[in-house]
């Protein structure tokens, strides 16, 4: 049996393609079993999942990442470990048990019931949620009005099935970790988990941790939302951010201000994407595959962009018309021109493959990517251009609309 790859020192992500060394992923668990025809839309899934198959596909994915030299950090393990730190446990419970969601009485009763639960059990509650029936098994009687109005199978605490997509709730830009103020309520607790990990887990408070954690309070963020799928580290100097269904202009400016203030990049490029679910994030329509190339969903074409920089201590943004997008991106990547890779498909096939994440590729190294097997035409086209494509059987994993890039949060590329 192959042992784990040797632990690489440091942390940080300075581009999209340097060899992937350390990455956070989430193995799907009980939270997926809370997805039903009635709840799936609220939880942002297009279908219900076959958990056993999803787990084995995810295990394949993690095994592939390990084989390729990455240290794979499991979110559940990290959270279980951090729950042993008293301040982290208190913070995570505070975040989960919101009086404005549960009501004051239930929040107080749940806190008492969960406070001393073993970490391995508590982590399941935090990720998979809890029903009235399960609460009763923990000895909590539904005393509050809110709980008494619910049935035994009803959820008191919602599950977080989208933890599978670790890309979105936080991101690393250089040695700065930014926690995302998420667009949808269904995903907001995910960010609280990541914030506590970055601030409290020994792995991240030590020398391999971030130099700075940017974490706007979601309640204060208002319309200023950002999701990691919209953020791409083009080079040491430049980050691209999609203005999308999820990331707003306010959010992008806020992120830019934080990154420029931390001195981690010189420039943030905001790209005005169409606002629709099929293109929910920038990485849903385009991803970087090597030093000069991005795969792109053809119908996206070029869109208007805005370059945000700091000049004389002031933030400035400069607008560029759509037909300059590729030049703006090339400059961000530090290359003379950008190679845009679009599979030669009729509009129907192109739309179908893109819906199944054909453009959501995870680069393991320059010119070497992981893709879903079902994106056959796009994968063949990439290969014909010399890109190495490692295929993953991910039909269950993709049911929430996310591909290999969405399922990873790189912590170290080197
Ligand atoms: N970066 C990504 O595109 N992530 C996929 C997120 C899918 C998730 N079900 C969502 O709607 O937020």
UniProtKB/TrEMBL annotation:
<dbReference type="Pfam" id="PF02274">
    <property type="entry name" value="ADI"/>
</dbReference>
<dbReference type="InterPro" id="IPR003876">
    <property type="entry name" value="Arg_deiminase"/>
</dbReference>
<protein>
    <submittedName>
        <fullName>Arginine deiminase</fullName>
        <ecNumber>3.5.3.6</ecNumber>
    </submittedName>
</protein>
<dbReference type="GO" id="GO:0016990">
    <property type="term" value="F:arginine deiminase activity"/>
</dbReference>
<comment type="similarity">
    <text>Belongs to the arginine deiminase family.</text>
</comment>
<keyword id="KW-0378">Hydrolase</keyword>
């Amino acid at each position: 049996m192959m042992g784990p790859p040797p632990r690489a020192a440091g942390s940080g992500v300075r581009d999209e393609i340097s060899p992937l060394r350390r990455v956070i992923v989430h193995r799907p668990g009980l939270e997926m079993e809370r997805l039903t025809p009635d709840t799936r839309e609220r939880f942002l899934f297009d279908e219900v999942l076959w958990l056993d198959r999803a787990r084995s596909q995810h295990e394949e994915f993690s095994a592939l990442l390990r084989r390729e030299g990455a240290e794979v950090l499991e979110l559940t393990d990290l959270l279980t470990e951090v729950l042993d730190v008293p301040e982290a446990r208190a913070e995570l419970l505070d975040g989960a048990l919101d009086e404005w969601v549960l009501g004051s009485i239930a929040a107080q009763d749940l806190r008492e019931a969960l406070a001393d639960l073993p970490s391995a059990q508590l982590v399941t509650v935090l990720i998979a949620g809890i029903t009235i029936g399960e609460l009763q098994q923990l000895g909590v009687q539904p005393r509050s009005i809110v709980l008494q109005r619910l049935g035994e199978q009803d959820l008191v605490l919602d599950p977080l099935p989208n933890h599978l997509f670790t890309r979105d709730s936080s991101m690393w830009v250089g040695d700065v970790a930014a926690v995302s103020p998420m667009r949808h309520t269904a995903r907001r607790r995910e960010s609280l988990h990541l914030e506590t990990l970055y601030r409290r887990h020994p792995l991240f408070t030590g020398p391999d941790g971030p130099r700075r954690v940017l974490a706007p309070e979601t309640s204060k963020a208002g319309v200023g939302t950002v999701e990691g799928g919209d953020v791409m580290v083009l080079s040491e100097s430049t980050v691209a951010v999609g203005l999308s269904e999820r990331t707003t202009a306010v959010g992008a400016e806020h992120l830019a201000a934080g990154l420029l203030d931390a001195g981690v990049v010189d420039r943030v490029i905001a790209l005005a994407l169409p606002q629709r679910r099929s293109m929910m994030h920038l990485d849903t329509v385009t991803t970087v595959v090597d030093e000069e190339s991005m795969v792109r969903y053809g119908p996206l074409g070029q869109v208007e962009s805005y370059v945000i920089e700091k000049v004389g201590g002031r933030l400035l943004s400069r607008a560029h018309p759509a037909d300059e997008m590729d030049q703006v991106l090339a400059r961000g990547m530090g290359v003379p021109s950008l190679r845009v890779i679009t599979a030669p498909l009729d509009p129907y096939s192109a739309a179908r493959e893109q819906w199944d994440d054909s453009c959501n590729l995870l680069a393991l190294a320059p010119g070497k990517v992981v893709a879903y097997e079902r994106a056959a035409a796009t994968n063949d086209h990439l290969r014909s251009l010399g890109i190495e494509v490692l295929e993953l059987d991910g039909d269950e994993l993709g049911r929430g609309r996310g591909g290999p890039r969405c399922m990873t949060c790189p912590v170290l590329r080197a």
